[in-house]
UniProtKB/TrEMBL annotation:
Gene that this sequence comes from: Vangl1
Protein name: VANG1 protein
InterPro entries xref list: VANGL
Transmembrane spans: 111-133, 153-172, 184-204, 224-244
Positions with biased composition (Basic and acidic residues): 36-45
PANTHER family, per database record: VANG-LIKE PROTEIN (PTHR20886)
Length: 523
């Protein structure tokens, strides 16, 4: 219990530190100096809709505060609570309601397709059985006796239906990975083909067998066997169209994230645009580093500060052309030297990152050394007094919390790591006897999107934008865009060129040579 209390006391400001800034500190200091300004600022507050906490971590003030932050920010920061600076407009509310309506429509479309496929599949499996049982029920006395061949056909039908059932389950009954905007063309064609096929068999069965009450029962059973055989061939066709056709790479796609320009290349086969977009998104969550808008905000603020020039205003209307030219020249010289300031600021930022990284590495190594000492002490105690990994993580976490907190703020990763997630990762490393380097790998290097919680992805619902129909196949030169709320993925499709290989024969004897040595040498 004491370890948990130390954890909370040491890490009490972790969930609120992203909203702190120097501006907030100055406001808190001015508020204590001047009560009158506090009353005036209170009267100017307006009612807005507060955004989720993840949005508050990404404000411009927080990113600006990173540049001038000292090592004692934990003691000097003042938290100002009040009205949120973020608001939501009527257009955003309308867009959210539209997204909800679209999601309801997609759910209805998905369940309708599953219902149609399930009913058709049930009809397919019951049709051969009905072909065999209906004559036995309707005109059993008039049927010819079923011989050995006929009884053997019963076994054939049973095993073929079992094989068809297993193959259908493996190919079609899968958990859907995404909701596509349009139907899958090949899947829809297969459903139509199966329906027409079963309908034609029923039509022939009703006209030639039910109406005439055919007494050749072996022929009826053979007719049911032919239906099962045809269904098996249709299943093979489905495997070729749905699985095998797309395996051979035919296109290379380049995926570029619009905000930071990070790109990846992938090879795809014969796919439609919507299915290619699905493959791109699956690879995006695995290969691309997590999207961090705080880094973009910081770079934009630096560029804006260094590219800002001096503005000259002629208030009195006097002739101040000489003074104006001098100020414009000073502004030009300032812009010329701005790259030096940017260079030194970036170098200072890298220095602070390296320094805080070194402090974090040392703190984590000391904490893991402490936990090994605790484990050695616990082994000498009774088995009932052993400390579980969660308690051990809470015991050593306060010693590294401050260094980890400062490093995450400096590298602007604080919005992706909560206190609970860090404790879970620490207990996981302790349970599996992992080293400090293995524990720090998640925090020293930004990982892929799948490494973080779903509520911190910033990209859950996507919109496909394409000039071509999304059901059409990939072609050379096609460009489509996958948009989400904060950024977009631009996908450029290029066809793999036709490669012509030629063979050149090399005679093995051409590599042979003779070395002649003279036995006599001149003296």
């Amino acid at each position: 219990m004491s370890a948990a209390m130390d954890t909370e006391s040491t890490y009490s400001g972790y969930s609120h530190y992203s909203g702190h800034s120097k501006k907030a500190h100055r406001q808190g200091r001015d508020r204590h100096k001047s009560p009158r300004s506090k009353d005036s600022s209170r009267s100017e507050k307006s009612v807005t809709i507060q955004t989720p906490p993840a949005e508050l971590l990404l404000g411009n003030d927080a990113s600006r505060a990173e540049e001038g932050q000292d090592d004692n920010w934990g003691e000097t920061t003042t938290a100002i609570t009040g009205t949120s600076e973020h608001s939501i407009s009527q257009e955003d509310i309308a867009r959210i309601s539209k997204d909800l309506e679209d999601s309801v429509g997609l759910d209805c479309k998905r369940y309708l397709g599953l219902t149609v496929a399930a009913v058709l599949g049930l009809l397919v499996f019951l049709t051969p059985i009905a072909f065999i049982l209906l004559p036995q029920i309707l005109w059993r006395d008039d049927l010819e006796p079923c011989g050995t061949v006929c009884e053997g056909l019963f076994i054939s039908v049973a095993f073929k239906l079992l094989i068809l059932l297993i193959g259908t389950w493996a190919l079609f009954f899968r958990q859907p990975k995404a909701d596509l905007p349009r139907v899958f063309v090949f899947r829809a064609l297969l459903l139509v083909l199966i329906f027409l096929f079963v309908f034609s068999y029923w039509l022939f069965y009703g006209v030639r067998i039910l109406d005439s009450k055919d007494t050749n029962y072996q022929g009826i059973v053979q007719y049911a066997v032919s239906l099962v055989d045809a269904l098996l061939f249709i299943h093979y066709l489905a495997i070729v169209l749905l699985e095998l056709r797309q395996l051979q790479p035919m296109f290379t796609v380049k995926v570029v994230r619009s905000t930071d320009g990070e790109s990846r290349y992938y090879s795809l086969g014969h796919l439609s645009i919507q299915r290619a977009a699905l493959v791109v998104l699956e690879n995006y969550y695995r290969d691309f580093t997590v999207y961090n808008p705080a880094l973009l905000t910081a770079s934009k603020s630096l560029a804006a500060k260094h590219m800002a020039g001096l503005k000259v205003y002629n208030v009195d209307g006097n002739n101040t052309s000489g003074q104006s030219r001098a100020m414009i020249a000073a502004a030009a010289r300032r812009r010329d030297s701005s790259h030096n300031e940017l260079y030194y600021e970036e170098a200072d930022h890298e220095r602070r990152v390296r320094k805080r990284r070194a402090r974090l590495v040392v703190a984590v190594e000391e904490a893991f050394t402490h936990i090994k000492r605790l484990q050695a002490e616990e082994q000498q105690k009774a088995p009932g007094e052993m400390m579980d990994p969660r308690e051990a993580a809470q015991a050593i976490f306060p010693s590294m919390a401050r260094a980890l907190q400062k490093y995450l703020r400096t590298t602007r990763q604080q919005q992706y790591h909560s206190m609970e997630s860090i404790l879970q990762h620490l207990s996981f490393c302790i349970t599996n006897n992992m080293t400090p380097k293995a524990f720090l790998e998640r925090y020293l290097n930004p990982g892929p999107t799948l490494q973080y919680d779903r509520d911190r992805w910033f990209s859950k619902q996507w919109t496909l934008v394409s000039e071509e129909a999304v059901t059409s196949g990939l072609q050379d030169g096609i460009v489509f865009v996958l948009k989400c709320l904060d950024f977009s993925l631009v996908v450029n499709v290029k066809k793999i060129p036709f490669i012509k290989l030629s063979e050149e024969f090399i005679d093995p004897k051409s590599h042979k040579f003779v070395l002649r040595l003279q036995s006599e040498t001149s003296v």
